[in-house]
Amino acid sequence: MEHLIDLDRKHFLHPTSSIQQQQKQGAKLIVDKGEGIYLTDIHGNTFIDAMSSLWNVHIGHGREELAEAAADQMKKLAFSSAFSTFSHEPGIRLAEKIASISPDRMNTVFFTSGGSESNDTAIKLVRHYWKIQGQPGRRKIIALKRAYHGVAAASTSATGIQEFWDMAGHIMNDFVHAETSYQRTTKEAAASLRQKIEEEGPETIAAFIAEPVQGAGGVLMPSEGYFREVRKLCDEYGILFIADEVITGFGRTGEMFGLDNWGVIPDVMTFAKGVTSGYMPLGGVVISDKIHEVLIAHSKGTLFHGFTYSGHPTAAAVGLKNIELIEEERLIENSRKMGVKLLEGFKEMRKRLEIVGDVRALGLLGAVELVKNPETNESFAKHLHVAPRVIEELHKRGVICRAVTYEQSDIICFAPPLIIKEDQISEILDRLYDSILTVQKELQSQAR
């Protein structure tokens, strides 16, 4: 199996990875198979997948039901284009299903292959919405600092993380960023959004976009009431509200969609990841009846936007089966219950460990912050690489997790499959405690 490491170095340019690390050390892990919440590498080592890979394997690994759904559809109709109003039953059925579980008055779906495409699509659609109504000047998108919306042209520009801009520069214009509500009051965060709207001019703004919980930014929770204030501001200024539910959708936060936690209804909602639990690439955009009616009334000719795999029939069949299993197995309820256990464990850890600061979880989306001084929230020096060291200790103990270190933060993120059981939550917590304790002792020893 060692030859695979050499082949990986030579031929596989990995996404969001250190090229130097790959060349020096080879692949971090070559996964061979998955079952439930576990992954096994080519050497037979087993790991708890505490991130659902990329926040997306909701129903767990190795589910034959989805393999069978894909195989059955491939035997009948593996692929057919949805361009020029061509259609097929899986795409129609999935659009109907997603409409039925979406917030009120959101009934129309445009399909993509993933989250970046979904957010780019949403941005193009809202600009088109204003243009066909005689307001082409409404092009600006207000997003939030520390937001992550993807790596395509518009979604990179909407992302509020400096590292993603540094890679290729700002790809598109007309994107501005307000302060997130993380570690701010609702009043402060809402004031930042209002200020941006006033500075830019509401007549120039197409939409505001936000994740219900900022995932890749560090599982940053909104302040209480924030999104209700956002909805009011968007209504006041006549701005559309795009909810990026790519990570938070399909039960991740203990509700079907993240904004359901606060009873807020957006105008546009993007999704991906959990719609198929990652078994097939699929994403999409759900638009309100109001927007759909405008598109019907004012669009002329062809809507010049679409992807080869928009509404891919095999992916749609897998998505339908995946949502069916989420509902039948009551995985949203399990996400809510296990999320409570996860948060309780984090809080207990904060009492027992000296470098644990803020802890948080909403459903099975959680995070632990590591700080030099929990009383003052003082951060560790960046060169100490505290969160990555904890991630490495977790890896040694058979847990795959993710560190976020933007803006000198040290955050450990968690998003295990929604099928996880209480004893498995306890196992993750025990290994996390041991990992943080090990790094804490190393830091104390270095400080002497």
How would you sum up the major sheet?
Answer: 7 strands, mixed
- What amount of the residues lies in strands? 15-25%
The CATH class of the largest domain: Alpha Beta
> Whole-number average pLDDT?
96
Number of strands: 15
Q: Over the alpha carbons, how many angstroms does the gyration radius reach?
A: 22 Å
Q: Specify the overall morphology.
A: globular
For CATH, the homologous superfamily of the largest domain is named as Type I PLP-dependent aspartate aminotransferase-like (Major domain)
CATH topology description of the largest domain? Aspartate Aminotransferase, domain 2
Named CATH architecture of the largest domain: 3-Layer(aba) Sandwich
Secondary-structure element series: HHEEEHHHEHEHHEHEHEEEHHHEEHEEEH
Number of helices: 15
Distance between the termini: 44 Å
Write down the domain tally: 2
Question: What does this protein look like?
Answer:
The chain has helices at 2-11, 19-25, 52-55, 64-77, 89-101, 115-131, 153-158, 162-168, 186-200, 226-237, 289-298, 313-328, 331-352, 386-396, 422-447, and strands at residues 31-35, 38-41, 46-49, 106-112, 140-144, 175-178, 205-210, 240-244, 268-271, 283-288, 356-361, 366-370, 399-400, 402-404, 411-414. The chain has 2 domains: 36-59 and 330-447, Aspartate Aminotransferase, domain 1; 64-328, Type I PLP-dependent aspartate aminotransferase-like (Major domain) (Aspartate Aminotransferase, domain 2, 3-Layer(aba) Sandwich), CATH 3.40.640. It has 15 helices and 15 strands. With 448 residues, it is an alpha/beta fold. The model has no long low-confidence stretch (mean pLDDT 96). The strands form 3 sheets. It has a 7-stranded mixed sheet, sandwiched between helices. The chain has a 4-stranded mixed sheet with strand order 1-2-3-13. 42% of the residues lie in helices and 16% in strands.
